[in-house]
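agent: user wants the full assembly modeled, not chains individually. Plan: 1) parse entity lines 2) check alphabet per entity 3) run joint structure prediction 4) return tokens. Steps 1-2 passed, two entities, 588 residues total. Proceeding.
--- entities ---
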Amino acid sequence: MEELWNGLVKAFQLIFTFDPEVMSIAGLSLRIALTSVVIASIICLPIGSLIHFNNFRGKRILISIIQTFYSIPTVTVGLFVFMLFSRKGPLGGLDLMFTPTVMVIGQIILVLPILVGLTISALSGIDKTITDTARSMGASRWQMAVAIIREARFAVMAAVILAFGRAISEVGLALMVGGNIRGFTRVLTTAISLETSKGDIELSIALGIILIVIALVINFIMNRIQQRR
Amino acid sequence: MVFIETVNLGQKREGCDILKDINLKVERGEVHALIGPTGAGKTTLLRLIDMLDKPSTGQVIIDGIDVTLSEKTRLGTRRRMAFVLQKPVVFDLSVYDNVAYGLKWRGLSRHEVREKVNNILETVDLTEYSKRNARTLSGGEMQRVAIARAIATKPEVLLLDEPTANLDPISSSKIEDIITDIIKKNAITVIMATHDMEQGQRLADKISVLVNGEIVQTGNAHEIFTSPRNRQVAEFVGMENIIDGVVLSNEGDMAAIDVHGKLIEAITNYSVGQAVSVCIRPEDVTIALERFSSSARNSLTGTISWMAFSGPLCRMEIDCGFPLIALVTKKSAEEMGLKRGTQVYANVKSVSIHVLGQH
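--- prediction returned ---
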């Protein structure tokens, strides 16, 4: 009990004195997760719209498959990315293994299904009369898609935030392809896992608190968005 | 010149005909009302004219162009039209942005958009709501936004789908005033669907009656109102009394018709022996307590079987061998002491009777 209490006190000291190591780990975590979610959004919004606005054979099956991948284990994505980028892998020549770049790539793959799937359901939530109205007002297909995405902006934003939550809190992928290299690829989750096994509870608690605070902020933003609807 | 034309236009849904062989012709600057009961296919027809749906058969020709041909012609032509849907639909944006959308899509500069939107908002009396989210407005206000959005692009054709159907009477009359104003000022071609016969009469130059997916009659309001072509149209335009009979004699189009044993004189060219339906509007029946000489050719005796008051009017049914609905003022009914069971004379002028042939 005392150990836990001391850990907490030390953790707050680390946070409020802006301990350089804690700050650099938290900063890297945020940077990697933000970068991957921004890139993934740029990829997924058009893909989601394309699937939503076009009717083709196997559309329902495709959506089911996408939804299945919502909960794909992070280690599975880690394994896939590892095989791609390891020295013997097809993209091994790029020499990206154990860099923040490959972590971003991995996280993009990880959040892709959530973003595409939730974009599709966000767009499906828009009443058909809105689509008709846009068309009757003389919108081209492209202009209509933009109008509908804008109409679904709150639901799309919720999808993006959810994806960010998944990216920043995952550990398996970051550990496997990032390698938890101090000052280079060490992020909040991998650091907690390592420090705990080393017995450095204080640092783990401090990093854990930061992670929870980030989750709280995300939750808060989500609620605000939902209330605006 | 015919501006909008549909040629044998048809729409099927799940094997059923929603619209069949629609041949509609609308001239430039004409206000054409599509009237008919709910489910007659009015909305479907408007959607086809706006090319929101693809027809199962036939063509839509607008200004000489067959718009069923390609998506490019469709978009180009659709941009010359505007459509106000029955349910007020607004984007989850400010009133200003709602009206600005169509103009932005047509590539107008920010400055032009601002000027036009502000002008239009003034026209529909929504200037003070400019920055408000359109979703927070009332139904009537939303419909005003929808109309503002439609006319902002200066369309050549305005399609209106029961624009007042979901509104309270005050909002409804306000919308109607705005529409009347738009029609007057812009010499715009309008096709409007309505199930409100009177609205059709007030606004339209021409009326097409749509029943069960077919146009059963086209004409001006007076024609449709006084000379419905068949029973369905007659019912729709308020001919509450439609009674079957047979022509007994006809001299110079003045016919005597046997209706359930009573003789009714009416003007028609149906020949002797022809089965017909006699159509009488309740408001064309006058009630008297005694027989007196008048120019009305028909005076039927009967007893009042029920009466119902609504506002200043009294609607009653007179049993004169067949039920006859009559409409009189509440004041007259009270002064004459009319009540259930009272024996009365129901007088109808021959010229007020419309005769339909039975097929």
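agent: reporting back. Chain B has two domains: 2-235, 239-357. Chain B touches chain A at residues 47, 50, 52, 75, 78-79, 81-83, 85, 87, 89, 91-93, 101-102, 105-106, 146, 149-150, 153, 159 (CB under 8 Å).
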